[in-house]
Amino acid sequence: MDGWRTGQPWQGLRLNISYTFPVTTTARPTDLRINGARLMDRLMSLAEIGAIDGGGCARLALTDADRDGRDLVVSWMRDLGLEVTVDTVGNVVGTWSVGGGGAVMTGSHIDTVRTGGKYDGNLGVLAGLEIIQTVQESGWMPPRPLAVTFFTNEEGARYAPDMMGSLAYVGGIGVEEVLGTIGIDGSRVGDELLRIGYAGTTPCPAPAPHAFVELHIEQGPVLEKEGATIGAVTGVQGISWREVTIEGQSNHAGTTPMSMRHDPAYAASLIAVFLRDLARRYGGNQVCTVGKIDLHPNLVNVVPARAVLTLDVRNTDEGLLRRAESEITERLDALAAEEGVTITSRQLARFEPVEFGESMVTLVEATASDHGLSSMRLPSGAGHDAQMLARICPSGMVFVPSHNGISHNPAEHTDTADIVAGCDVLLQMMITLTTQETP
Ligand SMILES: [Zn+2]
User: How confident is the model at residue 350, as a pLDDT?
Assistant: First the structure.
């Protein structure tokens, strides 16, 4: 009940006082299944808040729409008799306080980008509610608490960095820094939390849960292409973003001999080719992208004076990512000498890759197999809250297919059968995790 203060918008929402669930002590159930219709009902109800054309959602973090979404999910948590806490950065945890020790936790986020879909994040949160309700109704008492959470500002669309709430939850960023963050619209996180009634009092960072598992749509095309229903996520790629500036000699395109040019556009092109070649040489999970090139003065008959380009380099292996970074640095130095241009660069972002523990990845695969579902291992190309929780407890992720690999788009879609299958796998994993001393 910590963080539950009078005068908050969510205060007084359907309080559940008389809810009881049957109590029996039996062996760990292996044949429980969630109620798919109930899960889809909740997904569609949440999607009505901040609904946009094309079937998507716009609930930027800490806006009125985010508040309304939060209020609805909190009311559902309370319907299930969960103890609801709101921490100092607005992360909300609903705990079914049975058994003893640390909770087996699941969850995700309910904030969206401005052109978000129905499933990104929301699925992971509402699956957690559905799982707790399913276990409550079964009569089986887990030996540990079960908890479902939604973290503040996962998307980072209004405030940077993304995954802000989960990063604070594990102590990776200070509360004061979070509260003082200014958004794209000039608003301040701390003020907005107060305004929407989610400036809670539960301390952050929080104690580590027993384990954390997140169900999420893949947001990429791999599962669908491979015909697999369940993704056993091995980890999250490390990301290195760099902005490169090349200064050369601007001159007439007709009169300057080719041998006398110091051409930033040519150098930028060579860098793009080098990155493509590097990704091909490394193979595996190495990806490289030049996503943006600006030329100055950007005219048809002028050798440019300057090129500014961005490099997005990702790998699941930190050693390989570092090797790629240093190869790129060496190539930039050599290129500057070869072409007679000046090349400078600055780091825009850097996140180390996260590897989920082998036992958690195996548990996803084994559970999928128990359910007669096809599965495959894959890394996540996008960032997720689970990668932050991996800093403090055994963590893992379950992916379900995204139709055509589309996400952050109203057209985002996952088949109901896949959603239900993913939630059933998560249910069984959480039951198993409650019975394991060391996940
Ligand atoms: Zn997400």
Answer: 84
